[in-house]
Batch of 2 targets.
Target 1
Amino acid sequence: MISRTPHVLQLNADYTPMKVMRWERAVELVLDEKAVTVVSYPGRFVRSTSLAVPWPAVIALRRYAKARGRVRFSSRNVIARDHFTCQYCGARPRFPDGRPDRADLTTDHVIPRAQARDGVVYLPWSKRWVNVTCWENCAAACRWCNTRKADHTPAQANMPLRQYPRVPTQFDVLRLALARVGSVPEEWRDYLPEGWDLLAEAEREPGQILSVS
Ligand SMILES: [Zn+2]
């Protein structure tokens, strides 16, 4: 099933998937000859007064672009990187329709700000000093865990992390984008690594709504 204004999957010149984009941008890239349409949505056309072009479903860049892989650091993106899941107790607050309920999640400084020296903290697991507020020291936590952990490290609070926080990769970006569009269009499946559509669906998986109050 496709939504009324379906998104477009952009591949690099070597056909590795890069990102999900709005159709307007994709058509622009094709008309500017920066990308080619690999697959289009059958029977759909993007029309203007002077032309009608097949509606692209998958496009590929003509020239190889170095994947930027940079994700803007923000609380929202930390929570998204962590699959909208508390990294301490595993709570996954969700609305009844399966969408993540961000209101119950916070960003926790794993090594707390109160234990920082000149704004930096030591991460025992990676044996590195980092800024207190960065990808590697921030994790999604439900309100209850965040309050309980307070100004302690995971070891001091006896609250082990499910995984150590890391800088998100280009793959994380794509995974999140797929989750945002919901169902992955049939036309994209041949261009995504095996099982990625399932991953995207798992992000939205209903039925695991945990109470975190
Ligand atoms: Zn929790």
Target 2
Amino acid sequence: MLSFRKAIAGWYKRRFNVTLDPTNEVLTLIGSKEGIGHIHLAFVDPGDIVLVPSPGYPVYPVGTGFSGGVSHIMPLTKANGFLPDLNAIPKEVAKKAKLMWLNSPNNPTSVIMTKDYFKRAIEFAQDNQIIICHDAAYSEIYYDGKRPASFMEVEGAKDVGVEFHSLSKTYNMTGWALGKVKSQLDSGVFEAVQEAGITALGLDESVTDGIRTIYQERRDTLIPGLKQLGLEVDAPPAAFYIWVTVPKGYTSASFTAHLLEKAGIVTTPGNGFGAPGEGYIRMTVCTTKERLAEAVERIKKIGF
Ligand SMILES: Cc1ncc(COP(=O)(O)O)c(C=O)c1O
């Protein structure tokens, strides 16, 4: 439906000042997840390398595997600011890689990438002939009024990359190849959903401002509470996620189990997002601030 793609392009223009041609630079997806999974079928042949951040969204390595590709892990560690260290990728791996996944704001660390980081990634992609797939699913959930950038805002991005957006389910440039794959797998997004999307994308910013205010209040309830308990945690700049260092004497799994069994609190062990996530748990702000305050009280009661 061209009118939905036009609404997406209009939103990109207003939000990021990025010009997209709705006829051939935007593709609507059933959800960004299926596009993220399917894009490997368009570009990755058996044995090809895909650069995958870890901890990270599991669909990147799983989609790679479905195409017979091999994931090369880019560890996200506190020492590198939870950003992939492009200099640490061996030259022979970079030369062989077909595709690189980036995700800002990040799931599970909530870290955001600057335009300068995107610029370096674009240079890396140009030098090594790699397609960058940027997952921007959380770009509209940000705090303190500091808006995350779109990968597409940076010069050269369109030549090397594709951006996946969740609300607008956007993606760019190499779209036709993914479009070909998708035309054999589904018959497009249900029109009523596209109509709803057109309305959502045309709404005033005050709607998303209201949503962000709710998340910010939740974040600002949970973070000080966790800090008061003595847990090591940074306030995230974006996304729903709180990446907490597990206290001494625990692993990701044993701390998750402790919180679940003793306090009835569900968290996700960091190593579930990849081995470099060991030593962390992921909490979310997807419940009310009252429940989050209660969670802090419950952790206080059981100790750790
Ligand atoms: C990093 C990331 N990307 C993409 C998605 C998929 O979003 P959707 O398929 O709802 O657009 C998710 C959902 O959890 C996610 O965490």
